């Protein structure tokens, strides 16, 4: 985990969404603030999950040159950078801020994911979600106990995901990684479908496609039809949880989106 364990104090003016400190109301639909890694390249995919009247306010974490390793995932989740990025997206007054990175939110375990959410809340976010936290919530709501996972990562990063899931009460029955150290966003649908089908097992209640830099929007429903079980993806679950936090449903396919808003996480 990054060395800095402290989180930022709430700026009252920022928390109320006004430079003057006044608590003005707005008739506009609440938006979603998105804190994304510097290498995130699928902005358009996130927008596809959003209803037409919900805006996304995206900001990037600081750029640095490094391959996609455990060390990079830890660096992406640095609390100082996350705190600054959260404050950056508060100006348009989103109803929720999400940390849209799978590896950066699972690499330091359950505690690390909790501290990321706390960091965003204490920086002024009215609600806070992370990709990995959203994944666990979704799996619990779907009643998934045994999961198969497909990732673009090297083995060391995939192993961190397996550990995070285990600590969250989810067993990984199979995992496959592409072993990529960069340019993950260049992976096409055909390769994603191939690895998902390869990792599926009869004992898996569902499948998870990790990494917000993998395109998945158009293949979720075909995969569910072919495999006969829920297929959850990083961008899907990120937007599902963020929109759910402001009382909205994501737009798209998959069994996850069939869960009524009224159903809460135990």
From TrEMBL:
Pfam families: Amdase (PF17645). This is Asp/Glu racemase.
């Amino acid at each position: 985990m990054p060395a800095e364990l402290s989180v930022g104090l709430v700026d009252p003016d920022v928390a109320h969404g006004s430079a003057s400190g006044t608590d003005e109301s707005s008739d506009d639909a609440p938006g979603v603030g998105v804190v994304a890694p510097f290498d995130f390249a699928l902005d358009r995919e996130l927008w596809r999950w959003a209803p037409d009247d919900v805006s996304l306010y995206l900001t990037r974490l600081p750029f640095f040159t490094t391959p996609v390793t455990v060390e990079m995932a830890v660096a992406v989740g640095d609390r100082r950078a996350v705190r600054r990025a959260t404050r950056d997206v508060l100006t348009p007054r989103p109803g929720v801020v999400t940390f849209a990175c799978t590896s950066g939110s699972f690499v330091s375990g359950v505690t690390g994911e909790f501290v990321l959410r706390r960091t965003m809340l204490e920086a002024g976010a009215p609600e806070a979600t992370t990709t990995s936290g959203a994944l666990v919530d979704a799996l619990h709501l779907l009643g998934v106990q045994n999961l198969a996972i497909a990732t673009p990562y090297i083995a060391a990063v995939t192993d961190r995901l397996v550990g995070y899931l285990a600590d969250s009460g989810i067993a990984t029955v199979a995992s496959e990684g592409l072993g990529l150290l960069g340019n993950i966003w260049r992976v096409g649908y055909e390769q994603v479908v191939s690895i998902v089908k390869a990792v599926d097992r009869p004992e898996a209640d569902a499948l998870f496609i990790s990494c917000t830099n993998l395109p998945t929007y158009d293949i979720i429903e075909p995969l569910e039809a072919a495999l006969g079980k829920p297929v959850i993806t990083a961008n899907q679950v990120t937007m599902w949880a963020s929109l759910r936090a402001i009382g909205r449903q994501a737009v798209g396919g998959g069994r996850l989106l069939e869960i009524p808003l009224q159903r809460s996480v135990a």
